[in-house]
Amino acid sequence: MGDADTPVEQRRVSVLSGIYYDYRVTVEDKCDDGTIVNSDMTNIGFAKSTGTVTGRIAYGSSGTAVQGVDVTMTMTNSEGKEAEQYHSIYFSDATGVVTWPYPSSDYAASLFAGDFSIQLWLYPETFSKSLIAHLGGNAGLGMTASGQLTFSNGSTTYTFNGITLQKESYNHVVLTRSGTTLTCYVLTKDGGSGEPTVQKATLTIAGSQWPLTNASQFELGRFKGAADELRLWAKCLSEADIVGNYDHLLVGDEQQLETYWTFDEGLRTQFFDYSRDGSNYHKHHGLIGSNAQTSTLTPGALRLRAKTDAEGFPSPAQAPPIQSFHSTVFTSSTPTRRCSMWAITHSYIPPTLRTSRRSPWRDASPTPAPTSPSRAYSSTWTDSCRPTTARCSRPMPMESTGSACPSADTMLRPSSAGTR
């Protein structure tokens, strides 16, 4: 069918970052007898358009870096107020669920037979006996009617004694496996700085008892409340790993990160997996079922944030899909007495142009020049801010260079007005 010399028509239109589109590809074949046969394929477009922030925070007249300084990135609207940036999944009753069809019939049995970790935020409005994270074959992480966490291997349900969820509050819940040992963590934080409160309990269970052969899908839900930021790892996270990453968004290419759902798309029927190996996305996308919907009820402790390393560079963190903005406020805090220099470059680069597997806040390898619609803004200033409190909090103004200390209310704005 068809002629190799038949011209191919390509139609291209400009697309906006942050908008999801349905794409249709139509193949039109002209047969030898003159008949025309059309074949269509339709799918939603998927790509994670990320922002890259590079820079260094140093203090004192000599520009000495300070390790452990918090750096937070917040999207604001034209009025200078925090804009809607994050979403979660809300279940209106105990039948609400989201699902992810496994890539193959032996996928779950293979993945969960070895070390793994399931990490997520849970907000139970009420407690009910249910499987929260259903791995298949009635195996998974659950809770009791009193808010205790459990694990079922398909035939027996075990309780993690000594740890209980907080009702009507976000709890960071982690289930890890190392050999035959299951460990469950619950982290809570009331706000402010400091370390979270950690509850921990362990169980011993034989992996051969798990009925995951031919498991077809992963399910999340079956309780009234919300869930956010689910991460599935093909390794056992340590307590230090969990405390180190529970309160900030991931890059997506972390070692042995198998599935990563932020739920921040705000779509009605589906959500995307941002885990990847380099530029190869795993595409473990999920579907939103009945009695489940996106929500702006999100954990207050979960933010786009990082801590400076020994050289003063924020690491590890990344700007996730923040494609449309009026201004972005960068805030740093430290108990030191002087803030000397903060040089920031803020750019939007398609994931296909990214070359570094290190933290996108500070790329070790050269970053290719951004192409449309990517844009870059940069500014450097030096100031000396005398201490009035133990906290130095200064948003960076993108349009100024000088020695004057900016006000705490100054916004970081691109040199061109308006949104992208």
Beta fraction of the residues?
A: 35-45%
Count of DSSP H/I helices: 2
Overall average residue pLDDT: 73
Order of helices and strands: EEEEEEEHEEEEEEEEEEHEEEEEEEEEEE
Shape: globular
Helix and strand content put the structural class at mainly beta
Whole-number radius of gyration? 24 Å
Distance between the amino and carboxyl termini: 45 Å
Count of strand segments:
28
Query: Segments where pLDDT lies below 50 for 5+ residues?
Result: 1-5, 317-420
Question: How would a crystallographer describe the biggest sheet?
Answer: 8 strands, antiparallel
Helix content: under 10%
Walk me through the structure:
The protein has helices at 107-111, 239-245; strands at residues 22-30, 36-44, 50-59, 64-65, 70-76, 88-91, 97-101, 116-124, 130-136, 139-143, 148-153, 157-164, 171-178, 181-188, 197-204, 217-221, 225-233, 257-261, 270-271, 276-277, 280-281, 286-288, 292-295, 304-308, 314-315, 327-333, 341-349, 376-382. Helix content is 3%, strand content 40%. Strands 6, 8, 13, 14, 15, 17, 18 and 23 form an eight-stranded antiparallel β-sheet that branches. It has an eight-stranded antiparallel β-sheet with strand order 12-11-10-9-16-7-22-19, with no helix packed on it. Strands 4-3-27-28 form a four-stranded antiparallel β-sheet, with no helix packed on it. The chain has two helices and 28 strands. The protein has 420 residues and is mostly beta strands. The chain starts with 21 loop residues before the first strand and ends in a 38-residue tail after the last strand. Strand 24 and strand 25 (314-315) form a beta hairpin. The radius of gyration is 24 Å and the shape is globular.
